[in-house]
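Limitations

Structures in this collection are predictions, not experimental determinations, and the ligand pose is part of the prediction. Treat each record accordingly. The example that follows, with zinc ion as the small molecule, is included so readers can see exactly what is and is not provided: the inputs are given verbatim, and the output is the predicted complex.
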Amino acid sequence: MSALDGRKPLVLDVRELQRRAGAMMKIQRIAPAPVDLENPMIGIPVDTDLNLDLMAESVIEGVLISGTVSAQAVGNCSRCLTPISEPVEVSIQELFRHADLAAEDPDEDLPTFEEDLIDLEPTLRDAVVLSLPLAPVCDPDCPGLCTQCGVPLKDNPGHHHTQTDPRWDALSELFNEKG
Ligand SMILES: [Zn+2]
Ligand SMILES: [Zn+2]
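Predicted complex:
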């Protein structure tokens, strides 16, 4: 693994804890979002602001990072495809072990760090991706799209098709099965 760059905004420099158990430090900063904080429907755009509000606590085995990360996610309603934007706030709690201690006791499946630099990015990505809704909606009552012509029903109250051609029925059943 290549050495971490302590100037990168998602690399936390915990040197001031000096490996003294019980020592704590606040980490509050705004970092640009890295790639892949997303699912197919919604995500946090690259380089938009991530607000980190974290606490680093030195414990015997390493450093416990806890707190919240908040950002604005953008995507599309899963029912009507309207663009949407919603705040996301995720809790982070992860113990990063000192690499030298982890080498003595490699059983535990915890992230490790060396030289007082903790790479928060993988932990952050897991937490954010898990917290994003798989089927975001513009409104909990969003009625979706007309299965016959595809117009958003939200913007067209009372929309309906008077002509009932049995071929349309067969088509709409197909769409309903898909949706
Ligand atoms: Zn919608
Ligand atoms: Zn229609």
